[in-house]
Input
Amino acid sequence: MTGSRTLGIRAFALVLPLILFLALFFVWPLVSIATTAVSDNEVARAFPNLGRVIDEWDGVSPPTPAMQEALVADIRETAQTAMGDAVRRLNTQTSGFRSLFGRTQQAVERAEGAVDLPSIDERWEDPVFWNTIRSALPPYTTRFLLGALDLQRGEAGVEAMPPDQSVHRQVFLRTIGISALVTLFCALIGLPFAMLLAVTTGWVRQVLMAAVLLPMWTSVLVRCMAWLIILQKDGVMAEIIRTLSGLREAVPLLFTRTGVLIAMTHVMLPFMILSIYSVLIAMPKSLMMAAASMGARPLAAFRTVLLPLAMPGIVSGALLVFMTSLGFYILPALLGGGDDQLISSFVANYAIRQANWSLASALGLVLLIVTVAIFALYQRLSDRLARR
Output
């Protein structure tokens, strides 16, 4: 009994580093993102006094003297950094809040004792700004998750945002569409290349393999800068297209959807080729000859013999390319135009420029859910292919 317990302790000690690694670099970031996506405590930290008295207000009548006194006290007691974060958060919900609060804060700092807020700015008589503060006081909210899907809470419940404010759903569809096109192009190019790689031998295979591996060993940023030169108006690719098509003017490729697709396909193509090649290299080389000996034409042999056997590699490569393309940031940002940016650009914009970590986390969480759903679909498809 003691020996079995000792073996169990030793086995647990061996896997403990792996468990700690997964907890630190996988579980904890996911929990942090999920928590940030539903957290909204910036306003509660900045307005503790107002939070204790505003619940007694009916939300329709003008603000009470107690509410005004509490707000003035919060302005004087809250640190400037915390107040700035709260004001930025409130301004994203109600336009004009930053200018209103900046003017009010200056007047309160100059005054002594009680302050009549409507005398500083008549907008303080409008219940809209007070309701904005009250709606943001709860520490947890679904506002950011709904905003990531272009939804909001209205009088009738959850409803769609106005068309002029709806952008995230369109960006998600654009991200999925571009990723799907890149996956399709990689499959169309990668399958013939992997077939050629599998049937060749000697130095020819080494050269072809080097053509696949060398781009993978080069930094994505370096490849992106190379594509900036190639795709420019007087670049190599523009000259080739103009020569072949007989056009007088160069076809614009830089800062277009076409340029983004070309560059992303070039970056992701090795993953597709290697996934398919790993399956083809394990297949007996006599299968196609056997099919030909039984009267099958080359196209029919490819469709009925080679393609079904290569399908696991195609599916796994498609999953790898598609899921990686969903998170592309550098290539679309540098090579694409305003209508070619993927969801990762919006996540970076909210996190870095607007300091709206909650909305950035909500977008990342939605993208994670989409990725997990795609992976589950892949698992189901793989199981079906394995049973055949």
User: Anything to note?
Assistant: The chain has a mean pLDDT of 86. The longest strand covers residues 151-154. The two ends are 46 Å apart (CA to CA). The first helix runs from residue 2 to 38.
